[in-house]
TrEMBL record:
Subcellular location: Membrane
Transmembrane domains' residue ranges: 12-32, 38-64, 85-106, 126-143, 163-182
Residue ranges constituting the Cation efflux protein transmembrane domain according to the UniProt record: 13-221
Name of the protein in question: Cobalt-zinc-cadmium resistance protein
PANTHER family: MITOCHONDRIAL METAL TRANSPORTER 1-RELATED
Main location: membrane
Coiled coil: none
Keyword Glycosyltransferase: no
UniProtKB keywords: Membrane, Transmembrane, Transmembrane helix, Transport
Annotated source species: Psychromonas marina
Membrane topology summary: Multi-pass membrane protein
Length: 311
């Protein structure tokens, strides 16, 4: 657990460092060239740094040690539900990124209405796009490969770099197209390329944080996990039920961040059937082992009842 958390924290710190490098390059270059798409890209990355710092703080809460000692549990601020911090942080990040995209969209539309913006140094703009594309691709690939088994916090960070990568490629396209149009009879269209690129970029890229936001809100609302997870849960429980000749069961589940919360109620119809406490704990252990394949932290609660009302 400790090495996994250290690795996750290291990946997030790497993302912050690369984000600082990216933002400094972007803001400097954007101000010099007075390019809307470069400045938008740099501001997006700058705010993403602050969000990444918030992510590390959230990681500290989510992965803090738990105690089964009664006094220790009574003192902790998160007796239950600390894993909700993870989808909460991802939701905040997504909302902020969506807001940036909306601002960029409105600003770009305003620029189009007022006549666009002139890009005087196409070569410098293309060079910026090439440099930042390399930075973004390397960061994205590193986080994607090194963090492929990491939870949602790192996955969201990786997606953020994917958006930056596509932005940088769009910058290259924007400056190249603007330069080519300036050499033709369609030169009057050249000033509109930069703000039009921002419009297209924001409309397309808002989908990524949008999908992540929907996913996180579902977790915060404790909605059921996807059908694939539910099917695996039922398969594991059904096997234990049949093996111990239990009559039926009711299962409730939800995924919150890196934790899978499952509540199972086994219904035993025969009022004369009795179990030792050790037998019940043995069934609980078997259920737990069968659910380990998910690779997530389990919050498992199993009850046994004859009255379906308590299920």
């Amino acid at each position: 657990m400790g090495s996994s958390v250290s690795k996750e924290r290291g990946l997030l710190k790497f993302s912050i460092f690369m984000g600082v490098v990216y933002s400094v390059i972007g803001i400097t270059w954007g101000l010099i060239l007075q390019s809307g798409i470069i400045l938008f890209d740099a501001i997006y990355s700058g705010i993403a740094i602050l969000l990444s710092i918030m992510t590390i703080y959230a990681l500290g809460i989510v992965t803090s040690d738990e105690s089964f000692d009664t006094a220790g549990i009574a003192k902790t601020k998160f007796q239950m539900g600390k894993t909700s911090v993870e989808p909460l942080v991802i939701s905040i990040k997504s909302i902020v990124i969506i807001s940036i995209c909306l601002y960029g969209f409105v600003d770009a539309v305003s620029s189009l209405i007022s006549g666009g913006s002139t890009q005087d140094n196409a070569f410098a703009g293309i060079l910026y796009g090439v440099i930042t594309s390399i930075v973004c691709i390397c960061s994205w690939l590193y986080l994607k490969v090194a963090g492929k088994d990491s939870p949602d916090l790192v996955q969201a960070e990786s997606e953020q770099w994917l958006v930056d990568t596509l932005f940088s490629v769009l910058v290259i396209f924007s400056f190249a197209l603007s330069y080519m149009l300036a050499q033709t009879s369609f030169s009057y269209m050249s000033p509109y390329i930069d703000p039009l690129s921002v419009v297209l970029a924001t409309v397309y890229f808002v989908q990524i944080p949008g999908k992540r936001l929907i996913h996180s809100v579902k977790e915060l609302l404790l909605m059921a996990p996807n059908e694939q997870i539910q099917a695996k849960i039922n398969e594991a429980i059904l096997q234990v039920k049949d093996e111990h000749q239990l009559d039926s069961y009711i299962v409730r589940s939800t995924k919150t961040g890196r934790q899978l919360n499952i509540e199972i109620a086994f219904v035993i119809v025969d009022p004369k059937r009795t179990f030792e406490v050790g037998d019940l704990d043995k069934i609980r252990s078997e259920v737990e082992r069968s659910l380990q394949s998910f690779g997530m932290s389990l919050w498992l609660n199993i009850i046994f009842t004859q009255d379906r009302h308590w299920a």
